[in-house]
Amino acid sequence: QCLPRGASAVPLANKHIELVFDALLNPNNLEILRGILPAAAEDGSHVAVSCLPERVNARQWVNELVRVGRAGLILVTSQLTAEQHLRLQEAALPVVLIDPVNRMDESLASVGASNWQGGVSAVQHLVELGHRRIAMLRGYACLADDARYHGYLAALKRLRPRAFLIE
Asked: pTM for this structure?
């Protein structure tokens, strides 16, 4: 059986998984929760939901996860630090990142939105509506924003290769 990169060979049936959010401000978090809970229940797994404080002692955090018997973690839009990653590896806790906002080690499994294609699709949709002057306002510096921006640029260059782009 082939496993996704970073996935554990131990089945998660009857296991306790920690679903960790970096904040509860994103409305998409509820959709993620709506997807994870039924899937875990179907698999016989249990999900604990928590928020990771901005300044957390990585060693204490991981020790607590091990102490309470977590089988693995799902981290949502978290900026997993190198120290946190190291401590999780030492504890042999499987981790899956959802929409990570910083570059991660390829040993970590991750699931992300198709942000680049989103940038392309947004431009194509606006062009189909007849718009010709299309600008993009950028958010904070992160992989998701960068990917959307590069999709936006790719679509503009394809539609108007000689257009002057202001960055």
From this structure: 0.67
